Amino acid sequence: MQQFEESVYQLIVETSTNLPGDVRRAINLGRSMENRATRAGLAMSTIARNIKMAEEQVSPICQDTGMPTFIIHTPVGANQIEMKRAIKSAVQRATKEGKLRSNSVDSLTGANSGDNLGPGTPVIHFEQWENDYIDMRLILKGGGCENKNIQYSLPADLEGLGRAGRDLDGIRKCILHAVYQAQGQGCSAGFIGVGIGGDRTTGYELAKRQLFRTVDDVNPKPDLDRLEQYIVETANQLGIGTMGFGGEVTLLGCKVGVENRLPASFFVSVAYNCWAFRRQGVEIDGATGAISNWLYERGSDVSVEESAGQGAEDLAAAGGAADAEASAAAGESREIVLQTPVTEEQIRQLRVGDVVVFKGEMHTGRDALHKYLMDHDAPVDLNGAVIYHCGPVMLKDEEGWHVKAAGPTTSIREEPYQGDVMKKFGIRAVIGKGGMGPKTLAALQEHGGVYLNAIGGAAQYYAECIKNVNGVDFMEFGVPEAMWHLEVDGFAAIVTMDSHGDSLHEGVEKDSLAKLSAFKEPVFK
Ligand SMILES: O=C(O)C[C@H](O)C(=O)O
Ligand code: SF4
């Protein structure tokens, strides 16, 4: 078993940096369904480009490399204690080399362990089997989509859909509702795993295990097969679209499993996975510990389609290069280049739909920083500043810090603080993903601010726009939560909430709720 640790390391690197073949195929199909000239289409193109960049640079597809979760089948008599030790050591190495972000945080103090090890992390499930080889599967599911998991207890009354009973049609309603409530916040277009039955714990486990099925497999239970197909088709009529920008593609896959339940309980548990659906698996020789086979088609075998004229289609080139038809479809999107710091006047000119390309310094800030800034001073002048909701993957060498991955994080978590923090320090622009709520929208209007949506998960795409790390504060918060001062060039994001009271997110949510209500009537009798 000498090579076992190296095999685990290879599996981690492959999973984090190279999206598997079946997921790529689903994304290619999604891209073909989305109108390329729209905001959702541009987001899809950026995602495709990011997948390629991650593979080429062997760097994380998304900066949030999630909760490493291993499911391992071992031959009878295999030493699981030794394997556990090797897995932890491989996780440590992958973190040190920037293939995983340091993601293990003390729940009470917020202290980051720095190496992805700690109580409960990584997650390792062992099971014995009577084969002589090891089957090891890994999923790296990020926090943003994990936050969109949802569990229903039937019967229930669901927004837009009414009564969901204890039958297949009630289950249908729960799953559709699960997609609706995620909106773009889990980096749609997503994949969902559904667990019917079990208890509250095993229901979620069953849901997550569905994510290990290949996107294109067929459910052996005809009823569930029909349900899976219905859900993908119907969810794509909700109009949520990539990143919640509105569009044709909201869901790329649905897998449903069923287990027995107690007479009193009826749970439907839904695990939502973003487009950055990172899971792989290997067969390992029980004697040597070497990889003998990959269990899912590898990313390198399926190319992510790039369309002709690709230069003109990514986000940074969107406004300027869009032709008349494209501009109209994207809601008259304009491209505006802004040098930071920015003025109130510049910000008041921006409208929902504009593509802004930033140049200059921006500062990262997420949960720990926003809480801190509520009752402390900022370490740097934030007048006219741009805040980026981002927890990057960073590596340090003799020359200083380097950005390895730097996409946006879900902004809604900062809703209680954002407006106050902007007003207090004179911050003019906030970049994140998934949109923010009414409190922030009101503050943007009053203060003269703007919210921009970057493409979630596009961590390599944005890392390339960061030309220098000017400095860092609050390293004590841990790498993802620290305040990084970043020099950017060509950093593009779309205005989705402006200083005139308009919010694209509010509109998409309202429209999708109306569309959801059309699926109220029973389908599965
Ligand atoms: O933690 C992050 O960097 C992102 C997170 O996965 C999110 O989707 O909000
Ligand atoms: S940022 Fe988006 S793509 Fe990355 S883990 Fe979170 S939900 Fe997934």
UniProtKB/TrEMBL annotation:
Fe-S hydro-lyase tartrate dehydratase beta-type catalytic domain sequence ranges: 325-506
Bias-annotated ranges (Polar residues): 101-115
Gene Ontology molecular function, alphabetical: 4 iron, 4 sulfur cluster binding; fumarate hydratase activity; metal ion binding
Catalytic activity: (S)-malate = fumarate + H2O
EC number: 4.2.1.2
Pfam families in UniProt: Fumerase, Fumerase_C
Residue numbers spanned by region Disordered: 98-119
Keywords (A to Z) from UniProt: 4Fe-4S, Iron, Iron-sulfur, Lyase, Metal-binding
Entry cofactors: [4Fe-4S] cluster
GO BP terms in the entry: generation of precursor metabolites and energy
InterPro entries in alphabetical order: Fe-S_hydro-lyase_TtdA-typ_cat, Fe-S_hydro-lyase_TtdB-typ_cat, Fe-S_hydroAse_TtdB_cat_sf, Fe_dep_fumarate_hydratase
UniProt domain Fe-S hydro-lyase tartrate dehydratase alpha-type catalytic: residue ranges: 6-282
Assembly and binders: Homodimer.
Family to which the UniProt record says this protein belongs: Belongs to the class-I fumarase family.
Protein's job: Catalyzes the reversible hydration of fumarate to (S)-malate.
Protein name: Fumarate hydratase class I
Source species of the chain: Paenibacillus oralis
